[in-house]
Amino acid sequence: GELVAKAIVPVKREFLRPPPLSTFVKEKKSKRQLKRERRQEQKSALNICSEIAKTGNVNACPYNEKCRFSHDLEAYKAQKPDDLEGSCPFCPYGLACRFSGTHKKKNSEINGLNKDVQKLLWKNKIRFPKADAKLKLLGLEPRPTKKIKDGSLKLHPREKKLIDFREKLYLAPLTTVGNLPFRRVCKMLGADVTCGEMAMCTNLLQGQASEWALLRRHSAEDLFGVQICGAYPDTVARTVELIDQECEVDFIDINMGCPIDIVVNKGAGSALLTKPMRMKNIIEAASGIVDKPITVKVRTGFLEGRNRVDSLIADIGQWGANVVTIHGRSRQQRYSKLADWEYIYQCARKAPEALQVLGNGDIFSYLDWNKHKSGCPELSTCMIARGALVKPWIFTEIKEQRHWDISSGERLNILKDYVRCGLEHWGSDTKGVETTRHFMLEWLSYTYRYVPVGLLDVIPQQLNWRPPSYFGRDDLETLMASDSAADWIRISEMLLGKVPPGFTFAPKHKSNAYDRAENG
């Protein structure tokens, strides 16, 4: 009882252990230093030119000596790390692949950025006839970019292809950790709806490849949307038109809840909650130009204790959104306080018939899910965010209506699936292996918080309880419970081989704030 009162997971006494001593933290290198090291590393034999690796021919690279990468094949072979176990998932890497054995080539991903479109975006030469016509209609002249001849366009409102979200298990869009390999794992474990990581409209409109990568979709994602974030109706409308043209998505979600300063200071994310007229213009412009549903993700308000989103719910439907998801916290609260589900219910009851309302916040067991579904029949469904990071099999638990006392071996198999999906997505050369490792470590900075059901005095675990130090029922379970990055690295080495020399890892989110996968 006293553990629960302190928001600590009530682990059975026989499994508790004294907390380990704190470890020494190295100081950070400057950006300049890191850049210098990257440049040197590019030139080293480690970084073989991909053209030469692919063909095995030293003369294959069109850049010759201007190439930024190494052309020394023999030196590369001499230092190449040992191959990983297993067979290569698919392969354009040739000699650089870390699975020398078998190679099959397959690609089940769509929504890549077409090179010609990218060049036109770079030169500001893409036209947005639908967006511009709609903005004109709403009396919102686009803010000036380089002038392109005005070809006016009549907009014929098309029938929306609606999606029924009722009862579907929806994995929330999550920055950093909600990447394509992680979403595939959640699909295997029972998620119905997935959504890409938040992408910034301005970066997409500039043709930034790294931002477009956030829109990629795996063929296993059968009900899939992308989430975009922008501060102005013209940028959002143009982005929606571009995505509609270039990508296959089932819905487009507009983020109006992200709490990060850099987003809020630009007037996007949760800053929009303070500007209802801007919200109106964005939603009207976006929903008027595509036949895909436009969904909106909001928080309860900007400042704590001044919840105002309930007064906008009817309008949000009126303006043309088909779905609104309410994250039951204000911007100010970020992730600290428990989500306010009573307020979410209040909003759901105010929604017009045509607007589906989804709730989001703290769901970590099938009982939480059931409680919200029965507590408010007006709620279409709930979105699951951090709960899925700590425990991706929550989708299985909800579908099977049970607490799954999963073994450490079964959890390791889930990590193996992640690695397979990661190497398929990021590549099976050394760079792909290390990218997969990096994102897996980010994920492991959440998964260690899961406490096995069989170790609990009180079931189920709540998301806001902190795990104490404890021993698992076997060595692997104990290792998986460690909050130390050195142990997360050990787990990564079990699946991806040894880390490169001098490797360190610090998670993006600070564990003292307990939660940083920004999910607006």
From TrEMBL:
It catalyses: 5,6-dihydrouridine(47) in tRNA + NAD(+) = uridine(47) in tRNA + NADH + H(+); a 5,6-dihydrouridine in mRNA + NAD(+) = a uridine in mRNA + NADH + H(+); a 5,6-dihydrouridine in mRNA + NADP(+) = a uridine in mRNA + NADPH + H(+); 5,6-dihydrouridine(47) in tRNA + NADP(+) = uridine(47) in tRNA + NADPH + H(+). Keywords: Flavoprotein, FMN, Metal-binding, mRNA processing, NAD, NADP, Oxidoreductase, Repeat, tRNA processing, Zinc, Zinc-finger. A zinc finger (C3H1-type) spans 43-74. The keyword Flavoprotein applies. It comes from the Eukaryota. GO terms for biological process: mRNA processing. Coiled coil: none annotated. Its EC number is 1.3.1.-. Its cofactor is FMN. GO terms for molecular function: flavin adenine dinucleotide binding; mRNA dihydrouridine synthase activity; tRNA-dihydrouridine47 synthase activity; zinc ion binding. Residues 43-74 form the C3H1-type domain. Belongs to the dus family. Dus3 subfamily. Catalyzes the synthesis of dihydrouridine, a modified base found in the D-loop of most tRNAs. Specifically modifies U47 in cytoplasmic tRNAs. Catalyzes the synthesis of dihydrouridine in some mRNAs, thereby affecting their translation. This is tRNA-dihydrouridine(47) synthase [NAD(P)(+)].
